[in-house]
Amino acid sequence: MKRKLILVMMSVAVIAGLWQGYRLWIRSQPSLPVETAILSPDVQLSEFRLGNLTLGGQGDVYGSRGVALYRVVDNGERADPLFTFDHRISAIHERRDGLLIVATDDGRWEPEKPCRIYRSIDGGLNFEQIKTIEGGTVLWWSLDSDQNGRLYLAEYGPQKQGMSKTLWRSDNDGEDWKIIYQAPDKNKVHLHRIAIDPYTDTLWLTMGDGKNRNMLRSSDHGDTWQQVDRLQSTAVVFSEDAIYWGRDKKGKPGVLRYDRDTQRFTNYFDPRDYGNYAGSIYDLVRLPSGDLIVPFMKYADQSHISSVWRVGESGAQILLQLASEEGKGVAIETIAGPDNDGWVYWTGYQFKAK
């Protein structure tokens, strides 16, 4: 009996060693260049190519093309133009009651070009300017609102001293704005994701880059803050028992799971287990099933494949490989849905959630 037990333990050790060796081998396999490939029948080419894709508070998906604002309609068949601004759209947010906020900025890294904030109370047919930010840009991950309708704006880029350090709150639909957080005034410090937990109304804020990375939360709408960790994250989705964070750090790609009960982080998904996949995650979507849609970027100096995955408790499925080659970046900046018709969108593609 003892001999059999020893043999079983040895077999388990050998299998574990082989699996670990396989993981190391598969991570080392060069896979570039690679052409774009749709790897799931649930992914389709869309008839429109929109940026700043955002799921609105009433279940519609909005997006932009340059200075033009669009809303996706007719079961994902088309995107209707709503309004044309004088400057390039950088962020879109629809509050639960339909109030629509749009930010425009012709140069996120150019402080002489201001960021303008607009408000619409008629579904995007008309807009009025309600705020101007000098030396800071509001991006797609910089806008949110809580259960009582408070609006939040976070500044991203340029990253120089004196710029991109401020988080704003409005308690009266954008009429007035109050500074609720000021990041350290250091070079390269800038604000990343601002997000409201829909289950607790907790306010989360992340920032970067590198040694400046930080993750904070507030349970009193930004009046006081608590440091949670020093993670650099640019994407988040919430569930009843956990919060999922997409990482933005070279060498450590993937999704972290933050357990609400234990308040601890664990690794949830690492694409390197499946091949030459990695990259920053700029946005996440959670499906009604609980699965996540996870897009990965590729910067020009990186040599992995840019990809989109469906990840859940039952495993991971690759949905899309984007054309990736040495010396070129591939950006998947925003992903939005599921909308009222069950579609998830990223630029040039749509995915039917089932």
In terms of topology, how is this protein built?
Blueprint: H1 2-28, E1 37-38, E2 43-45, E3 51-55, E4 61-65, E5 68-73, E6 78-84, E7 89-94, E8 100-104, E9 115-120, E10 128-133, E11 143-145, E12 151-154, E13 166-170, E14 178-182, E15 190-196, E16 203-208, E17 214-218, E18 226-229, E19 233-238, E20 242-247, E21 255-259, E22 265-269, E23 285-286, E24 292-295, E25 306-312, E26 315-322, E27 335-336, E28 343-346, E29 349-352
Folded structure, characterized:
The chain has a domain at 85-230: Neuraminidase, CATH 2.120.10. Helices cover 8% and strands 40% of the residues. The protein has one helix and 29 strands. It has one helix at residues 2-28; strands at 37-38, 43-45, 51-55, 61-65, 68-73, 78-84, 89-94, 100-104, 115-120, 128-133, 143-145, 151-154, 166-170, 178-182, 190-196, 203-208, 214-218, 226-229, 233-238, 242-247, 255-259, 265-269, 285-286, 292-295, 306-312, 315-322, 335-336, 343-346, 349-352. The protein is globular, with a radius of gyration of 21 Å. It starts with a helix and ends with a strand.
What form results from the Cα inertia axes? globular
What's the rounded overall pLDDT mean?
Answer: 91
Tally of separate helices? 1
User: How much helix is in the residues?
Assistant: under 10%
Return the CATH architecture of the domain at 85-230.
Answer: 6 Propeller
The major β-sheet equals: 5 strands, antiparallel
Nearest-angstrom radius of gyration? Answer: 21 Å
Low-confidence stretches: 2-30
What is the topology, as strand order, of the major beta sheet?
1-26-25-24-23
Strand content: 35-45%
CATH C-level of the domain at 85-230? Mainly Beta
N to C succession of SSEs:
HEEEEEEEEEEEEEEEEEEEEEEEEEEEEE
Q: Quickly give the structural class.
A: mainly beta
End-to-end CA span: 50 Å
Q: CATH fold name of the domain at 85-230, please?
A: Neuraminidase
Q: What is the tally of beta strands? A: 29
